[in-house]
Amino acid sequence: MKTIHFISGMPRSGSTILGNILAQNPRFYVTPTSGLVDLLAGIRTGYDKIGDFRAAPNEQAKMGAIRGALYGHFEPVDQPVVFDRNRGWVFELELLEVLLRCKAKMIVCVRDVPEILCSLEKLWRENKAFRTIIQQEGKPVDFQSLEGRCKTWLEPAQPVGRAYIGIQDALTRGFRDRMHFVHFDDLTGNPKAIMAGIYSFLDEQPFAHDFEHVEQVTMEDDMVHGIKGLHDIRPAVRPVPKRAREVLGALADNFKGPFIWDEFIPKEKR
Does 93 reside within a domain? Predict the structure, then answer.
């Protein structure tokens, strides 16, 4: 059976570039943004709604069915180690550990919230002339101002707010030792050291990655998410200048932290 690990965390925090770096290792298979977490949760919900199963409940059979879906999903994959990427995995660590029959290992990509909001704002401006994104359709009045757009992204049901709540709650539930935090600025500024830490966390043999030529192998149709360019990466790993102050202005100070992950990531060189 394959070894399955997970990539989760905050939006606009480097999970796509990280996945494509990992994919350079011939032992590794990395998904684009995956719907597997929703599929497994859907099987669990559907199982409980079937009357005959409710009349004769069998928790082991239910978990066996979900486990079959998890491993069966990756049956066509040749590589022995798989990384499934979705921000929703932090909400389902209990389920994962029942399915895996061991502690899960999850890479959690994070970034300072002002820079996440800055990145989303820049993407929105690039798309604004061509399309109305999903959040704008639901909050047309709020999207008339920069403050309103930031407020929307941070709502509990929206990408930034939901991801932050998920990380915070996973820590509250006691899963700190399953979570390896990777800060965007560290990954782009010192990728060799960050990858060494990831390999140590995963108990994998080191691999010489090429940070100057990162081929994008995880392809996604970003128009499904309504924002063109959402998962594009640069071919070379380079530090990304902080632009929150430039793009958000004084509003950036409202979101400067501290953040839930700060205590787990050294900041001396950032």
Answer: yes
H or E element, residue 109: strand 106-110
CA distances to 68, 76, 247 from 243, in Å: 45, 42, 6
DSSP secondary structure letters along 3-33: EEEEEEE-TTSSHHHHHHHHTTSTTEEEEEE
Q: Is 260 within the bounds of a domain?
A: no
Which residues fall within 8 angstroms of residue 49, CB to CB, at 6 or more apart?
A: none
CA distance 151 to 129: 22
pTM exceeding the 0.90 threshold for the entire prediction: yes
Closest CA to 198 of 92, 102, 109: 109
Put residue 6 in one of left, alpha, beta given phi > 0 → left and psi -120 to 50 → alpha: beta
Dist CA 85 CA 33 (whole Å): 5
User: Is the pLDDT confidence value at 7 over 80?
Assistant: yes
* Residues contacting 54, CB < 8 A, separation 6+: 48
Q: How confident is the model at residue 213 (pLDDT cuts 50, 70, 90)?
A: very high
The residue behind tokens 């632009």 is 243
Number of domains in the chain: 1
| Residue 165, pLDDT above cutoff 70 | yes
In a domain, 246, yes or no: no
**According to the model, what pLDDT value does residue 270 have?**
57
Contact (Cβ atoms closer than 8 angstroms) between residue 5 and residue 107: yes
For the chain, what percent of residues have pLDDT higher than 70? Answer: 99
Q: CA-CA distance, 248 to 150, in Å (whole number)? A: 9
Adjacent-strand bridge partners of 30: 83
| Range of the structural domain that residue 187 is part of | 3-112+159-237
| Any domain includes 251 | no
**CATH number for position 187:** 3.40.50.300
